[in-house]
Amino acid sequence: MVLAAGAGTRMGMPKALVRLPGGKSLLTHSLQVLREGGCEDIVVVLGAGEPFVRKALEVWQDRIEKIMGDGRLHIVSNPDYAEGMSTSVRAGLAAAQELGPQTDAVVIQLVDTPEISPDAIDRLRKVGGPSALAVATYGGIIGHPMLIGREHWAPIATSISGDVGARQYLNGRDDLQKIACDGLGSPADIDTPEQLRTFTHRDLVRTDIRKAEVTQSEISVSFLELLVRDRRAGAVVTFSGTVRDHDHGRQVERLNYMAHPSADEVIRTITAEVAAMSGVRGIAVQHRVGELAIGDIAIGCAVAADHRQEAFETCSMLVERVKAELPVWKHQIFEDGTDEWVNAP
């Protein structure tokens, strides 16, 4: 089980989406560690930023399928994540129950502990069983991961509260096995970009935001591409969101975009948050307002990265967030003379 519901306020984005140097996200890294450690099925508990994490999972589908192999991946929603880690543990254990009686224990891993190794996972997994309770220790100090047998799932779900998680249930138990994992990584978590740099002993790639604005002018994606080009980047990905001539079976003649006064600030904030942990070299994005004709570009984006995967994923994430969060509303005029506002408050 991966607990990945945290908002990552100090990271500027949900922790599941934070990237390690090299481009791999904390979430895909956690999946790989658990699979290499011998876990078969994996439950991922989401909370903060869930729509964006789910979109990222779609983008990462090929990579995740390779990681999972024959294992099953289950994505669980925890709408109560703000009430503390205990809510995520309950949501995850409920999902584990649905995997069937053949699942007799679960290894719990935090998404923001990237230095835990597959060997530590495997060491706990080997003591698994319906009645098992085990935690990893480092220098005699209890850390993560932990293993919980099926017999304890219901008692844990009913007894824990707040932000403590399953450790509330484990404290003081005589049947708790302490598995020494010294030399098998570190259970330290990451809360800030500075901590991530410290853990990896590497500087994150600095992302240059070349343009992030709402504009009344025509958008040239070729120009955005030129803005982000970088001799260190091996890939440049662009996106053009164009005005189509139909919507839900009706013929569109033209449309008009209207923006809230805060739109420029919002698009800059979104771009800065995506850039903070993207691992790409350059980003440029524009959203057009005013009257647009069929075929005009409403949103343009360009991303330059060392590798194509980071470029594709960052471009997709940026476009999805702009579409979802930017206070811009679309007024469609149809050929039959009728009109419609889309996403207007």
Structural class: alpha/beta
Could you estimate the helical fraction of the residues in percent? 25-40%
Element pattern in H and E: EHEHHEHEHEEHHEHEHEEEHEEEHEE
Number of strands: 16
Domain count, please report it: 2
Q: How many strands, which pairing sense, and closed or not: the largest β-sheet?
A: 7 strands, mixed
> According to CATH, what is the class of the largest domain?
Alpha Beta
Mean pLDDT: 89
Q: What is the number of helices?
A: 11
Q: What's the CATH H-level superfamily name of the largest domain?
A: Spore Coat Polysaccharide Biosynthesis Protein SpsA, Chain A
CATH fold annotation of the largest domain: Spore Coat Polysaccharide Biosynthesis Protein SpsA, Chain A
Provide the low-confidence segments as ranges: none
Instruction: Tell me the fraction of residues in β-strands, as a range.
Output: 25-35%
Judging from the principal axes of the Cα atoms, what is the shape?
elongated
